[in-house]
Prior knowledge:
By secondary structure, this protein is an all-alpha fold. The chain folds into 2 domains: 47 residues; 159 residues. Helix 7 runs antiparallel to helix 8, helix 8 runs antiparallel to helix 9 and helix 10 packs across helix 12. It is globular, with a radius of gyration of 21 Å.
Amino acid sequence: MGQNKNHRPDPDDDLDDEITSDEIRRIFRNHPRDYIAKLEEIGFIYHDDDTDHEEQEEADARPLNTNQEYLVSFFDGDILLSEKTVEIFLEERRSRKPNFPLIRKYFKQANKNLLAMLSDGLHRYPVSTELLSDLAFFHETQNILSTLIDHYTAACEKQQNLEVFSELALNFYYATLPDGYDALQALKEKYPPGTTKRGVLDFLSEMENNRDSDADTDVQF
């Protein structure tokens, strides 16, 4: 994070600092997922201090067990996709000490075998929040919007636990919002008014609309 590029010495700097601090707090509160863009809008320059560190971690990462060796062989195209592949991936993902740098680099490379495995896993486990989250992470590197929409929509359709459904719908919304897709509105069109899922979606939409309204309120001088 850099300094405000619009800052100039001024007798009212103390007041400006207070106003800026209020804006920063408002941005972090109302825009937890896109705070970087919002900070840049008010003049801050963002420097990702973790980038070089992550790249070095990924370059140095090596398989530390047989599961990780298997996954690397699969990602490199030496092993065919099977149910075993998905199970090993989930087992490694849920382990006490996952080798995040090793796996992360394949996400950043938009590895086609990784994408095939995630899609296959979601056909087997369509309501898996873990695999959906990973698919959304993959989408950050390579645009797979239609695939992401299809899997999240299917998961929301199949999930009957309303608490989990609410979490899925909100994750769906945040994962596709940068692409201009309103997942909550799209889901509402699938469930008639008066149904329990529609009630959840109406509540989430109202919550997000209120959040946006608060975020658009100008700072009062």
